[in-house]
TrEMBL record:
One of its GO terms (biological process) is methylation. The keyword Methyltransferase applies. Its EC number is 2.1.1.37. The lineage of its organism: Bacteria, Bacillati, Actinomycetota, Coriobacteriia, Eggerthellales. It comes from Ellagibacter isourolithinifaciens. Belongs to the class I-like SAM-binding methyltransferase superfamily. C5-methyltransferase family. InterPro entries: C5-MTase, C5_MeTfrase, SAM-dependent_MTases_sf. This is DNA (cytosine-5-)-methyltransferase. It is an enzyme of class 2 (transferase).
């Protein structure tokens, strides 16, 4: 078992570019080992953190004996087979999401060196996948390894201007109980595990999570020069406007005629077999995604005072929306940055989970 004195140490499975590491670092936790299989993400991770602690390769090939002792293990396992945007093959049958069991295998084979806490972060679709049986499987696996479980549904919009709900399943060997179920962070689709007598769970006492932001996207947008080639030309902007529905067009004209310049995000959709644009009404970004199709990319519309300019969202904006304002992006293509940040975890959400649901249990006694 990891030492209970000194700095808390962490393992970061499915590390991606290290945003969980950033969030844990903000909570005073030091990451001592990480693992991922994606080459683009490996390069971004190395640019930010170096790669001395990074074990590059498939989680199923990780030798537990080579994993250092630590207090907590974080796992942002692949969500493709659990997301509503995916084919929903599920935890066991999905070719990517089954990687969760590779993580479990490593923790199990660490034996008495296994961390005192584990955290799984994934899309909220995990709670409903296979009518909740996949969620129950995760809890049961954590129980089998000796962890009592609590679970939270948090939207990154509590800290950054991006709507990004995610599920956080926290396993602790020596839990602190006695909390109350706040449905804003433990909705019924998550909280039901506490009523299942076959599952070992606890309700962690936590502080009230910050309220959802209602603005802030305009403030974090990147200010590009008028000559920047990323601005769309008149023809492309015209096609955007022409595709808007009646309601969308009314929203567009209202914003264009307003006395202030604001930024709004927009997605391409297919309606009645035709590609159209839909623009958000609020000053919040839609959920960032890994770019695997046209609808996954967000455009940014700068509009107001009778003017309109449009472009794709930039890589720097992706980073800011994930709470990674100081991340090293030099030398990487926009598409690489968007790909890597699109399926990452928001930094401040990680910090909240650590400070509220993990560290109090690790520091007790």
């Amino acid at each position: 078992m990891a030492k209970q004195s000194g700095q808390i140490r962490a393992l970061e499975f499915f590390s991606g570019i290290g945003l969980a590491r950033a969030g844990m670092s903000a909570a005073g936790i030091k990451t001592v080992w990480a693992n991922d299989i994606d080459e683009i993400k490996r390069r971004l991770y190395a640019a930010q953190w170096g790669e001395d602690d990074l074990a590059f390769g498939d989680v199923f090939d990780v030798d537990a004996d080579t994993v250092p002792e630590a207090d907590v293990a974080w796992a942002s396992s692949p969500c493709t087979d659990l997301s509503l945007a995916g084919k929903r093959g599920g935890l066991a049958d999905g070719p990517e999401s089954r990687a969760f069991f590779g993580f479990v295998d490593v923790i199990e084979h660490m034996g008495n060196r296994s961390p005192r806490a584990v955290v799984l972060e994934n899309v909220c679709g995990l709670s409903s996948s296979h009518e909740g049986s996949d969620f129950r499987t995760v809890v049961m696996e954590f129980n089998r390894l000796g962890y009592s479980v609590d679970a939270f549904e948090l939207n990154a919009r509590r800290w950054v201007p991006q709507s990004r709900p995610r599920l956080f399943i926290v396993g602790v060997k020596d839990p602190i109980s006695g909390g109350e179920i706040d449905t804003s962070i433990r909705p019924d689709r998550v909280a039901w595990i506490h009523a299942d007598p076959e599952l070992k769970t606890h309700v962690t006492p936590v502080e009230k999570a910050p309220a959802l932001l209602s603005s802030g996207f305009t403030d974090i947008t990147e200010k590009l020069a008028d000559s920047d080639l990323r601005w769309w030309d008149e023809k492309r902007c015209g096609a955007f406007i022409d595709s808007l529905s009646g309601i969308q067009r009314e929203r567009f004209e209202h914003l264009r005629n307003a006395n202030e310049m604001v930024a709004r995000t927009a997605y391409r959709r297919t309606r009645a077999g035709k590609p159209v644009w839909e623009m958000r009404e609020d000053d919040i970004s839609g959920c960032l995604r890994t770019a695997r199709g046209g609808s996954s990319k967000q455009a940014v519309v700068f509009i107001g005072k009778g003017k309109v300019r449009m472009r794709w969202m930039t890589g720097l904006e992706y980073a800011r929306l994930q709470g990674a304002n100081n991340f090293n992006l030099k030398g990487f293509k926009e598409s690489q940055i968007q790909y890597a940040f699109g399926d990452a975890v928001a930094v401040p959400a990680v910090t909240w989970i650590m400070e509220q649901a993990v560290l109090p249990a690790l520091k007790r006694g």
